[in-house]
């Protein structure tokens, strides 16, 4: 994994609201959440949610897809697995 991408992803997740948004999405698997439901779960205004989702999308940790009139947001599980693997590389056994 590219260290610059890892740093941007960690920075994005370092914000408590974005971490809460990511965790809400990750808990739904591939099903994802409609934006309105995500907003309800994290308890923030739509404009604030949009800002935080944009950062997660820019770093490859989330995606959005329109299905008819519904905008679904999903966590990108392979991106998180890659980030966690990168962080765990070269960790020796204690």
Give an overview in words.
This protein has 94 residues and is of the alpha+beta class. 59% of the residues lie in helices and 15% in strands. The chain has 5 helices and 3 strands; from the N terminus they run H-H-E-H-H-E-E-H. It has helices at 3-13, 16-26, 35-42, 46-58, 77-88, and strands at residues 33-34, 62-67, 70-75. A 3-stranded antiparallel β-sheet has the order 1-3-2. A hairpin with a 2-residue loop joins strand 2 (62-67) and strand 3 (70-75). It starts with a helix and ends in a 6-residue tail after the last helix. The mean pLDDT is 94.
Q: Could you give the order of the helices and strands? A: HHEHHEEH
Strand fraction band?
Answer: 5-15%
Largest sheet properties = 3 strands, antiparallel
**What distance lies between the first and last C-alpha atoms, to the nearest angstrom?**
25 Å
Number of separate strands:
3
Question: Structural class per helix/strand content?
Answer: alpha+beta
**Any idea what the radius of gyration is?**
14 Å
Number of helices: 5
Mean pLDDT: 94
Q: Which stretches are poorly predicted, pLDDT < 50 over at least 5 residues?
A: none
Shape: elongated
The oligomeric state is: single chain
Strand order of the largest sheet: 1-3-2
Helix content: 55-70%
């Amino acid at each position: 994994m590219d260290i610059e991408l890892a740093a941007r992803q960690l920075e994005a997740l370092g914000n408590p609201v974005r971490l809460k948004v990511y965790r809400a999405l990750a808990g739904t698997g591939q099903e994802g959440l409609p934006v309105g439901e995500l907003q309800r779960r994290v308890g923030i205004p739509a404009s604030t949610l949009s800002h935080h989702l944009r950062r997660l999308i820019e770093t490859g940790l989330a995606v959005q897809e329109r299905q008819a009139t519904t905008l679904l947001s999903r966590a990108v599980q392979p991106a998180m697995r890659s980030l966690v693997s990168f962080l765990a590389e070269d960790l020796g056994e204690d």
